[in-house]
């Protein structure tokens, strides 16, 4: 409880900074991931966790020891780890006869489990099996989801959101175009999800935009969706709530056309149209000679009237 | 002639453009959806080509990935760029995919008492320097904190003021005053915190020692002090002739004699229905509590039996045959003198059981 944290004040500045880093904020920190081995994790699953840790390098924690828990039955141990290490994403690997090569990916909200999806690993090629040059750690990957399955079922939709959350990395405002190094490609096909990661090679093309060639770099997994434990709708809605300060501010009096034209509205005070100053057309100005004749005529008419 | 050549030139230019773009164009049935803030692209096209591919799946996947990546790169290269330290940098838009937060939205904290007062009066914080010149030590010292400039508790010489008691310890007086200030500050901080969380402040109405308190006030203060221990006053000793405090039992609330007729009718009918029904209505909480209590008593009795058997020499029968959970027994009714250990057992056990009863009552709630 944060009240208790504040009742006992931190005695050093370092402790205060530590607590401030972990408290809820308007714009949040980058989510950390914890990679946990289950009681009976085998070599495949361990290698998968190591590879994912390499992909998520500064924003992840890989636990060395095996933890005998079952995420789908009891979530308290996961929540305890999350609280201690301030990680809101987790990946848990285990292996038994009923569920071979099992991987549970999940995320937390307020240190409680929000969504958990269990995936089975059917085929796995590790980072070290592919003898290529790898990209430096900490680069932001590009994510591509292919296949219409990702929008059809609720399970797949949440899985897509979970994978984006997991792999997206820090949110930046500028990105160096030459620094776009690798891409993670997820394809949903025949009930399986193929996860491939490729290194990007930019080749010359005739114009400014380069032509892309791909080279397989990283871990490639074939996953099968097993069980899911998704958050209820209201909890999910609560977790998606955005603070008012971060909502994009609407600019008033500006509207856009379907053709792309921007219209603005200006509110004016009431004007006297008779005293309006319009453009002066110099050509229509009366010449001095004309003015004199007009005056004479006016005087004439007046005199005639008088008489 | 000229017209024709102009047209030809235009056509040629177009063809050249098309050729150039050919290397980077990709044809897709459905356009991809891009979220450039996250460097994300979603391809909604059904992967028909991949379904039939068997052994060439990897190559097909790579081809698909290449096409999708090309489209994403095309989009990224169209973003506004700028040159930052000899690198071409594109400005990314805000991410459009909504993802759940990891922690709840922080609640705005209410203002503290000082902040409210300052806002009312229009008092703004004055900017102060960090260091102050200290005459005594002849150096710049910090304004507050460790080794501060004017620390009156650290003076080595204090003049006794004219009206003070000559035997009073002035140094201790200053240290005491400091402690009181610190305690007051801490109290105010906790009060602000409690107000921020709208928690109930432990009411200390009338319990400040003034030296002129009536008998009732003192009695109340003593009662509150007794209950404010970790065991909520269960092990506090009483003086020999002290009576148990009044009004510490369970409060029972009764409905007013005539008020809500509809509610009364409803409760009476409900009662009749429960009494009439053939099947007994099971109150799960009460049932589980009762079960738990019985199990606890059984465990305690078994443990006692074990300890007794261990302590005793020879095979004398232990007291009391069956120890089924039943109505709570009175403690202390054991057969025969069974050694010192035993004699100290019953009173304590009785006490425990009585306590157990009391707690069982509590648990029933």
From TrEMBL, chain A:
<feature type="compositionally biased region" description="Basic and acidic residues">
    <location>
        <begin position="290"/>
        <end position="301"/>
    </location>
</feature>
<keyword id="KW-0539">Nucleus</keyword>
<dbReference type="GO" id="GO:0005730">
    <property type="term" value="C:nucleolus"/>
</dbReference>
<comment type="similarity">
    <text>Belongs to the RPF2 family.</text>
</comment>
<dbReference type="GO" id="GO:0019843">
    <property type="term" value="F:rRNA binding"/>
</dbReference>
<dbReference type="Pfam" id="PF04427">
    <property type="entry name" value="Brix"/>
</dbReference>
<feature type="region of interest" description="Disordered">
    <location>
        <begin position="270"/>
        <end position="307"/>
    </location>
</feature>
<feature type="domain" description="Brix">
    <location>
        <begin position="31"/>
        <end position="234"/>
    </location>
</feature>
<dbReference type="GO" id="GO:0000027">
    <property type="term" value="P:ribosomal large subunit assembly"/>
</dbReference>
<dbReference type="InterPro" id="IPR007109">
    <property type="entry name" value="Brix"/>
</dbReference>
<feature type="compositionally biased region" description="Basic residues">
    <location>
        <begin position="277"/>
        <end position="289"/>
    </location>
</feature>
<dbReference type="InterPro" id="IPR039770">
    <property type="entry name" value="Rpf2"/>
</dbReference>
<dbReference type="GO" id="GO:0000463">
    <property type="term" value="P:maturation of LSU-rRNA from tricistronic rRNA transcript (SSU-rRNA, 5.8S rRNA, LSU-rRNA)"/>
</dbReference>
<protein>
    <recommendedName>
        <fullName>Ribosome production factor 2 homolog</fullName>
    </recommendedName>
</protein>
Automatic annotation (TrEMBL), chain B:
<feature type="region of interest" description="Disordered">
    <location>
        <begin position="231"/>
        <end position="253"/>
    </location>
</feature>
<dbReference type="Pfam" id="PF04939">
    <property type="entry name" value="RRS1"/>
</dbReference>
<feature type="compositionally biased region" description="Basic residues">
    <location>
        <begin position="302"/>
        <end position="336"/>
    </location>
</feature>
<keyword id="KW-0539">Nucleus</keyword>
<feature type="compositionally biased region" description="Gly residues">
    <location>
        <begin position="337"/>
        <end position="350"/>
    </location>
</feature>
<feature type="compositionally biased region" description="Basic and acidic residues">
    <location>
        <begin position="235"/>
        <end position="245"/>
    </location>
</feature>
<comment type="similarity">
    <text>Belongs to the RRS1 family.</text>
</comment>
<dbReference type="GO" id="GO:0042273">
    <property type="term" value="P:ribosomal large subunit biogenesis"/>
</dbReference>
<protein>
    <recommendedName>
        <fullName>Ribosome biogenesis regulatory protein</fullName>
    </recommendedName>
</protein>
<comment type="function">
    <text>Involved in ribosomal large subunit assembly.</text>
</comment>
<feature type="compositionally biased region" description="Basic residues">
    <location>
        <begin position="351"/>
        <end position="365"/>
    </location>
</feature>
<keyword id="KW-0690">Ribosome biogenesis</keyword>
<dbReference type="InterPro" id="IPR007023">
    <property type="entry name" value="Ribosom_reg"/>
</dbReference>
<dbReference type="GO" id="GO:0030687">
    <property type="term" value="C:preribosome, large subunit precursor"/>
</dbReference>
<dbReference type="GO" id="GO:0000447">
    <property type="term" value="P:endonucleolytic cleavage in ITS1 to separate SSU-rRNA from 5.8S rRNA and LSU-rRNA from tricistronic rRNA transcript (SSU-rRNA, 5.8S rRNA, LSU-rRNA)"/>
</dbReference>
<dbReference type="GO" id="GO:0005730">
    <property type="term" value="C:nucleolus"/>
</dbReference>
<feature type="region of interest" description="Disordered">
    <location>
        <begin position="281"/>
        <end position="365"/>
    </location>
</feature>
């Amino acid at each position: 409880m944060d009240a208790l944290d504040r009742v006992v004040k931190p005695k050093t500045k370092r402790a205060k900074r530590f607590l401030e880093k972990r408290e809820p904020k308007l714009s949040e920190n980058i989510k950390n991931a914890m990679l946990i081995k289950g009681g009976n994790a085998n070599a495949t699953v361990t290698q998968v966790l190591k590879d994912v840790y390499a992909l998520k390098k500064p924003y992840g924690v890989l636990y060395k020891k095996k933890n005998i828990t079952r995420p789908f039955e009891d979530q308290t141990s996961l929540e305890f780890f999350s609280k201690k290490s301030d990680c809101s994403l987790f990946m848990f690997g285990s292996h038994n006869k009923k569920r071979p090569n099992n991987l549970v990916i999940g995320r937390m909200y307020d240190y409680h489990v929000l969504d958990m999806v269990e995936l089975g690993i059917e085929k796995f090629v590790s980072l070290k099996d592919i003898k290529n040059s790898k990209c430096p750690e900490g680069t932001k990957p590009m994510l591509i989801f292919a296949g219409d399955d990702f929008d059809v079922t609720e399970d797949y939709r949440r899985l897509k959101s979970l994978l984006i959350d997991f792999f997206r990395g820090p949110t930046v405002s500028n990105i160096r175009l030459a620094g776009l190094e690798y891409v993670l490609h997820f394809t949903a096909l025949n009930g399986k999800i193929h996860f491939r990661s490729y290194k990007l090679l930019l080749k010359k093309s005739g114009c400014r935009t380069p032509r892309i060639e791909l080279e397989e770099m990283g871990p490639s997994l074939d996953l099968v969706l097993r069980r899911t434990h998704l958050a209820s709708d209201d909890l999910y809605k609560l977790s998606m709530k955005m603070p008012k300060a971060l909502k994009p501010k609407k600019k008033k009096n500006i509207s856009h056309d379907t053709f792309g034209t921007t219209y603005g509205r200006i509110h004016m005070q009431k004007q006297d149209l008779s005293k309006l100053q319009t453009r002066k057309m110099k050509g229509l100005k009366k010449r001095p000679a004309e003015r004199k004749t007009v005056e004479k005529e006016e005087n004439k008419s007046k005199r005639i009237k008088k008489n | 002639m000229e017209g024709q050549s102009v047209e030809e030139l235009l056509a040629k230019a177009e063809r050249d453009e098309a050729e150039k773009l050919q290397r980077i164009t990709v044809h897709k049935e459905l356009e991809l959806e891009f979220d450039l803030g996250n460097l994300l692209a979603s391809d909604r096209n059904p992967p028909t080509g991949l379904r039939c591919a068997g052994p060439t799946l990897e190559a097909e996947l790579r081809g698909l990935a290449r096409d999708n990546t090309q489209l994403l790169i095309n989009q990224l290269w169209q973003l506004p760029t700028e040159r930052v330290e000899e690198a071409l940098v594109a400005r990314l838009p805000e991410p459009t995919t909504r993802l759940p937060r990891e922690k709840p939205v922080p609640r705005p904290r209410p203002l503290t008492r000082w902040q409210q007062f300052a806002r009312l009066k229009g008092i703004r914080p004055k900017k102060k320097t960090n260091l102050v010149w200290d005459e005594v030590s002849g150096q710049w010292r910090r304004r507050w904190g460790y080794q501060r400039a004017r620390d009156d508790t650290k003076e080595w010489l204090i003049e006794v003021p004219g009206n003070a008691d000559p035997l009073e310890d002035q140094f201790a007086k200053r240290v005491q005053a400091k402690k009181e200030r610190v305690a007051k500050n801490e109290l105010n901080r906790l009060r602000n915190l409690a107000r921020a969380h709208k928690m109930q402040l432990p009411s200390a109405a009338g319990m400040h020692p003034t030296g002129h308190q009536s008998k009732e006030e003192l009695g109340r203060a003593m009662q509150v002090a007794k209950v404010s221990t970790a065991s909520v006053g269960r092990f506090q000793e009483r003086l020999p002739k002290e009576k148990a405090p009044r009004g510490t039992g369970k409060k029972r609330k009764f409905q007013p004699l005539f008020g809500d007729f509809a509610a009364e009718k409803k409760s009476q009918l409900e009662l009749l229905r429960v009494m009439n029904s053939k099947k007994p209505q099971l109150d799960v909480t009460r049932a589980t509590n009762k079960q738990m209590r019985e199990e606890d008593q059984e465990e305690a009795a078994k443990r006692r039996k074990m300890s007794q058997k261990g302590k005793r020499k020879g095979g004398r029968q232990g007291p009391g045959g069956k120890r089924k959970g039943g109505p709570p027994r009175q403690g202390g009714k054991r057969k025969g003198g069974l050694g010192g250990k035993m004699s100290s057992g019953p009173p304590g056990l009785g006490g425990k059981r009585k306590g157990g009863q009391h707690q069982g009552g509590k648990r029933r709630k």
